Structure formats: structure tokens, C-alpha cells
Amino acid sequence: MSIFIRQGEILKITYSVSTETNKIKNIVDVEIDEESKSDRINSSELFNDMNEIKNFTWKPQEKDVNGKYVFNIDNKEISVIVTSLPENTIANWPLIEETNSNIIKDYRSIFDGQLVGDAEFIQGDYLGSNAVKFNGSGRINIPHNDVLTGMNQFTIIATINGENFSSNGDHSIVAKYETNSNQRSYAYIVRDKQIQVLWSNDGDNNSSESTGVTVEENKNIRLAWTYDGTFSSEAKAEIYKNGEFKTDLFASPSGQVNDNTNIDLRIGDSHWTDEFEGIIDNVIITDTVLSKEEIKTDYNNQPWS
């Protein structure tokens, strides 16, 4: 059994024990430190047949080879995944919900969303838990919120394992972008097997930049895009792949990305281009430009890295 903790140290784990097997069946509650009180814990529903609740205080020490902290209660093993979010994270969708769920939880803030169309949770080992599989006609909708737009700096990070990148069309990873109604803000896509980044500061004029960074099919890849619009005439974009800096570029317009938009943020789709095919996992958005060291740390925190 695994649970997923974002940030902070565990103070207490409450779990249930099966009346039939006397083995731990369910994590009921987790308490974490004061600095992380706003973080949200993923735990499954309570089981009706539990007959005992036990408390246990534990401080994680070392990860095992799979990136999990493993400890024992009464000789019953539980693994816990503990990773830290970058500073100034404004949203994090680790995509770890149950396989029959269509609710997408933001584990950093309040920006919950929903699976739409042909997309589903699958069991996997991407973060020691589940991920979302997109089948070419599905997406995740995150309702509009002003916090997710109008930024003059940001970083978007996501793990992908994609299919059919060589086919025609664009394959959207994360986007808040609509071409037909001057609702352009930002988009992070794969085009011709390369990362493409788009942004606009007024919803009309936009930059669409091919980065030259290639992405392979059917392979776990952790991608990061930093945007810095604080320069006077051209914004700066940096692209990272698996924790390593790959390229940077300057292009106009600069300034904050368009905040005159009320469209959904979408994962696995945009409002104008082709849907993603494959797996997307653990999406993070910050409202700052993360450093090379922070992006490397994020990659090193992935259990599969």
C-alpha cells in the first residue's frame, strides 16, 4: 500500500486493520507539519469492516531504491512517497487518483479539475502511483482562475510518455490558449517531435517558438519550460529535459501573459490543437522562473529517474 505526501514531514499515520486478515487495509489519515497544513493528502475511502484504529509517529529517514520510504507497523509494511514541491508552486496535479475517478485534484491549492472524453487513470509506477492515459480524444479541464494567468514569470513541469509524435498535428501538454477568440495566453506542445512553446500578452499577438528539443515516443520524459517576461522587449524561455538545461531563446512579446481570458486551462489538449496521445503525470506550475538547480532537484525527486 502506498500513499503520496507532498511536502513536509509526517507526524502521524492513522490506519485501519482488516478483521479478516489482521493486515493493514487502509490509510485513514495523515498529519503533517505546520508549514504544510494546506497540502492535501491522498487516501482511499474508509473500509466498513475495520475494527481497529492505531496511531504511529514516524519521521522518514532514507528512501529505498524505488524512491519510497518504507516502514513497518506491527510487522506490516507500508510504503510512503514523500516529495517536495518547488518554492512558489501555485498548482500541482500529481494525477494519482483512483482508476475509476474522473476528478483531478490540485494537491497544492484549490484548482481541481475533471477528466473529459477518452482519458483515464491507469495504474503505473510513474510516481509510485497512478497516471492519466490520453487516447487522442480526451483532456483534463481545469476551470479558469485568475491565478493561473497574467503571470510575467512562470515554470511549467510535466512528465510525458507520448505516442504518435511523428504524426501530423500538434500534441498539447498544458495550455491556456484559444486562437479563435483572442484568448491566447500560453501553450506547451509537441510539434514534429519537438517541444514548441507559445505565449501572448494581449490575446492576439503571440510568439510561437520551436525549441529544437526533441522528445522520444514511449519513454518517460520530465519536461520543464520557464518563461521570463520581465525583459523590456523580448521574453526569455528556457527548456529542460530530464533535469538538464537544453536551450534558451528570446522572442517578443514580453511582459505578463494575457490575463484577459476566461477559458479553461487544459492538460492533454488545448482549445485549438490536437489532443495528446499517451501518458501525462505530475504537472506543476509555479509563478517564478525556477533555477537550474531547482529543476534538477525536481527531476531527481521522480522515483523513476
Could you characterize what this model shows?
This protein is mainly β and 305 residues long. It folds into 2 domains: 2-83, no CATH class; 89-300, Sandwich (Jelly Rolls). The chain is 3% helix and 49% strand. The protein starts with a strand and ends in a 5-residue tail after the last helix. The model is unreliable at 33-53 (pLDDT under 50).
Compact overview of the structure:
This protein is mainly β. It is built from one helix and 20 strands. 3% of the residues lie in helices and 49% in strands.
Shape: globular
Strand content: over 45%
The total domain count is 2
Radius of gyration: 20 Å
Number of helices: 1
Number of strands: 20
CATH fold node name of the largest domain: Jelly Rolls
CATH top level of the largest domain is Mainly Beta
The helicity comes to: under 10%
Q: Could you give the distance between the termini?
A: 21 Å
Order of helices and strands: EEEEEEEEEEEEEEEEEEEEH
The whole-number mean of residue pLDDT values reads 79
